[in-house]
# Entry
Amino acid sequence: MANARRVQRLYDRQASRYDARSASRRLDALRAALFAHASGDVLELGVGTGATFAHYPGTLVSLTGLDVSPEMLSRAQARATGLPFPVRLVQHDFQTLPYGPASFYTVTSSLGLCGIPDPAGLFGEVRRVLRPGGQLLALEHVRPPQVWLGLVADGIDPLFERFVGCHANRPTPHLLREAGFTVEVLERRLAGILVDIRATPT
# Structure
């Protein structure tokens, strides 16, 4: 990932207070509704501190979590203890995925796709590692559909990228369609900025 070291440093610094700052009933509700659809062998991109773990069905075959930040992963490891499915946590820049073709039935992400510098490249990698009939489940903030809010997002995007490590104006559903996915937006919140997405390769 371009700027992966900078992003790693950013999230390493935030790890100890990340959960307290990002806790949200709204996010938990969206995660719970979305990740209930996960099944089989699952790959989570940007697993962070493991805030999603409680929202997965207990029937998963396995969960593999990738994150660039070792500090985040150390906190995720504590959350993985006692889950009813095996969990493997890997420190890795997930712009490219270190797995063979057709390795997973579900790929998931919770607010992890907005910081990738080459979305088309990553979505090609997701297609590659998904098994036939597989799915991508993603909770994302996206460019607002309203014209004036979209312009605001465009204006603040450079600051978001520098200090938060992600983009405020990324049109993720559109980019997935361009990459050859059929996209279903399952839920919209916050004036359409926060969305639950289910995408399947066409």
